[in-house]
Amino acid sequence: MLLSLGKTVFLLSLLTVGCGLAETICTSRRCLAQMLINKNFSSQPQYENCSQTVYVPYIEYQTLSVDTKNLRLYSLLQAMLVWSDPELSWNTSVYKYNAVVLPVQTVWIPELQVTNGIQTTMTDASRDLLVYSNGTLVHFVNINAEVDCAVNLFNYPFAADECPVAIQTWSYDECGTDLVFGKVWKNDGSHGDWQTTHVSLEKKRDDRHYIMVGLSIKYTGPFITLLLPTILIVLADVVSFALPVGEGERNGFKVTLVLSFTMFLGILNDVLPGDSECSPIIRTHFCVCLVLMVLSMLVSMVLTQVAKDGTIVSRCWPQRAAPKTRREEQDEENQADISVVKLGGSEDSQMLRKVVKFLDAIKAKELESERCKAIANRLDTIFFWFYFILGTVYFCAMTYVMVRYECKIDHFDFWN
């Protein structure tokens, strides 16, 4: 009985020692990973100088969208991070592997931030990262950033500008992390009405790095929806001068154009870009076009009155009869005497004279009407050429300003 008990104890001891040896001599890649996980180093590697250098070999930049109403730039950055942690190295004579995969949450990961970003979110591109035998770690991250960028919209819809996307990590009083960048390139540079023309990695100081993003608007869509309708409406207003000046068709047509243009501006209120340091000049363009059309409408109404009565103020103030001269008074007396004398004539002669007098009055009225119309037509021709020349000069000047003029904006005021 005692002998059997001794054998049992001996066998259990051998089993325990064997299991311990089995655990000790486990040198598989998974055992290596578990050994590193058990270290549980979740804090930043720290040395005597209290700083950690993080290398960023490349950044792949992509513009997601540009909010011209609120002046926001939405970007996606995909970056590769490389840093060293000697505590996570191992002896390759024991573990004969040069690299091993570890879960991201088991080690410390540097965090990248966008300095001028209103909202920045950094996510892991994978749940795992790569650790080399010398303690070097390689990881890939995605950064979604909403950047506050006062895009220069003065030349809209021919706008083009550059926006900085400043990248930094936490550091204070010689502690934290330092970034060393490699190269940057753009991916899929066209989204919506805006396209990314170029990206470059620059810096203002050793600790102030940024990606300069070149943006330009694809002007075909805004030109068709914004500028072309205004040009056509103003052109229709110019052509309306071909309608008779004394008729009501021209005034009705011009009123319709003004109301249509006003409704057009109301519809496009949500489409027009927001205000920035350089407010879009297209707003001024719309205002000037509306003023020109209203001026043309008012002048057409005034000329209609001139063509009808020969004066502008006849309907506002009654005209007083001009004082008669002495010669006119004598002529009236003579005509009265003649009419008295001729009362004794035949009835046919009296009727004939009344008809002649009536016809003379109609003829005089027609002559007066033709004279008023001639004055109105002359003034209408003068105003037409004035309106045509002024409109042509304005559109040429506005096109030049939209395309060539440059408005300067300080995009680095967030560092000031």
From TrEMBL:
It is a multi-pass membrane protein. Coiled coil: none annotated. GO terms for cellular component: membrane. Residues 32-183 form the Neurotransmitter-gated ion-channel ligand-binding domain. The chain crosses the membrane at residues 223-245, 252-269, 281-303, 382-403. Residues 1-22 form the signal peptide. Residues 226-307 form the Neurotransmitter-gated ion-channel transmembrane domain. One of its GO terms (molecular function) is transmembrane signaling receptor activity. Its main location: membrane. Keywords: Membrane, Signal, Transmembrane, Transmembrane helix. It comes from the Eukaryota. It holds the Pfam family Neur_chan_memb. It is found in: Membrane. This is 5-hydroxytryptamine receptor 3A-like. It comes from Mastacembelus armatus (zig-zag eel).
